[in-house]
Design brief:
Order of helices and strands: HHHHEEH
Radius of gyration: 19 Å
Shape: elongated
Strand content: 5-15%
Helix content: 55-70%
Number of helices: 5
Strand order of the largest sheet: 1-2
Distance between the termini: 52 Å
């Protein structure tokens, strides 16, 4: 059960097993900034200790599930991303694609693990 003081939307996202653990963590991190304006992407990447590709993968996942909206603005100092958090998230078709790909990847990992185990067991019996 979520902590009584936790925002219900954050609790909902943290308990949504359709999302990767990384996307849930990124959502909680982004929500920790009251004004919806967290530090720059470079600072977020540095603070979280993740790479740019990984950051965008999970930010895109949150966008696909309708949990965040990103408004990019170009300024003289570079780009600025402002995040908003819709009250009623509406997943896009991309969300379904993310789930399907995750299931396929997990199934492939399970099959490879099973094959490796079978190969190991066959080697022990020879």
């Amino acid at each position: 059960m979520p902590h009584k003081m936790m925002n219900p939307q954050i609790a909902y996202v943290l308990h949504d097993n359709r999302l990767s653990i990384e996307a849930r963590m990124l959502y909680a991190y982004l929500c920790s900034f009251d004004d919806g304006a967290p530090p720059s992407t470079c600072q977020i990447i540095r603070q979280l200790g993740i790479g740019k590709t990984r950051f965008y993968r999970y930010r895109n996942e949150l966008e696909a599930f309708g949990l965040i909206e990103v408004e990019n603005t170009i300024t003289s100092g570079g780009g600025v991303a402002k995040y908003s958090f819709p009250d009623k998230p509406v997943p896009t078709a991309e969300a379904e694609e993310i789930l399907i790909n995750r299931l396929i990847n997990n199934n492939n990992k399970a099959m490879n693990f099973k094959k490796e185990r079978n190969d190991e067991n066959a080697g022990e019996h020879n």
